[in-house]
Amino acid sequence: MGKSAKNKDSGHGGGAKGNLKERARKRRQLEQLKERAKSEYCEARSSEIHGTGVYAIKDIPVGKKIIEYLGERIDKEESERRANAQMELAEKTGDAAVYIFTLNKKWDIDGNMPWNTARLLNHSCAPNCEAWIEEKQIFLYSLRDIADGEELTFDYGFDIENYEDHPCLCGSAECVGYIVGRDFWKELAERLAKKKS
Ligand SMILES: C[S@@+](CC[C@H](N)C(=O)[O-])C[C@H]1O[C@@H](n2cnc3c(N)ncnc32)[C@H](O)[C@@H]1O
Ligand SMILES: [Zn+2]
Q1: What is the 3-state secondary structure (H, E, C) of 38-104?
Q2: DSSP-derived 3-state class of residue 118
Q3: Smallest CA separation from ligand 1 atom 27, residue
Q4: Architecture of the CATH domain 2-196
Q5: How remote is the CA of residue 3 from the centroid of ligand 1, in Å?
Q6: Rounded to an integer, what distance in angstroms lies between the CA atom of residue 89 and that of residue 86?
Q7: Where are the domains of the chain?
Q8: Which numbered ligand comes closest to the C-alpha of 188?
């Protein structure tokens, strides 16, 4: 017992004391993240678009930084692995939420953490928010004045590949029927027209 116990408590950053310190540091880090994930402007509630959504709890003026999208930074390889796992789950259950957000060419953010309220924003073809990447952080800003009680949405910007896997239920007058980024709407319209003819 003596030797290994002594080594564990040796105070060189390793061993039991080191582990305790590391755990305390991680706990503090998590608490800080949870604080950062909070917003005075919105809360999660059941959504008419899909599952749970995020709703304004006060009037929000245009251009306001509403909430930060937080999560685990992962490289593209890990991101691909997680996205495939989610697609497999989708095939089994018929539904799977994707919480992976592109940060830059090298990194993505997996926001699938229960305290990351921003992960619950649904997509809309007529969104009232947009996501902005600042340095290595992602924030959601209001695109227009938003009234207390409105659901917050943004354009997921999904590309056209596999569009049929993502039907859109946003319910807006502009809805194109699928969760596809505005940049791909023209191509989507062409593909849908071809399918009809
Ligand atoms: C990041 S989650 C958003 C939160 C989700 N409502 C929930 O309860 O977990 C993304 C998933 O929500 C669903 N979703 C988001 N916007 C949608 C929309 N406009 N129409 C249909 N489903 C939508 C899709 O299943 C999508 O993969
Ligand atoms: Zn739509």
Answers
A1: CCCCEEEEECCCCCEEEEECCCECCCCEEEEECCEEEEHHHHHHHHHHHHHHHHHHCCCCCCEEECC
A2: helix
A3: 97
A4: Beta Complex (2.170)
A5: 55
A6: 5
A7: 2-196
A8: 2
- How many Cβ atoms are within 10 Å of 98's Cβ, its own excluded? 18
Gap between the Cα atoms of 166 and 178, Å rounded: 6
* Amino acid, single-letter form, for residue 136: K
Task: Tell me how far apart the alpha carbons of residues 30 and 24 are, in angstroms, rounded to a whole number.
Answer: 10
- Give residue-wise pLDDT tens across range 177-194: 999 999 999 999 999 999
CA of 9 from ligand 1 middle (Å) equals 49
What is the Cα–Cα distance from 160 to 185, expressed in whole angstroms? 8
Instruction: Name the residue among 97, 102, 99 with its Cα closest to residue 75.
Output: 102
Rounded to 5°, the CA angle 97-103-105 comes to 115
* SS3 call for 109: strand
pTM: 0.86
Q: Residues with Cβ < 8 Å from 137, sequence gap 6 or more?
A: 68
- For 49-89, write each residue's pLDDT tens digit: 999 999 999 999 999 999 999 999 999 999 999 988 887 88
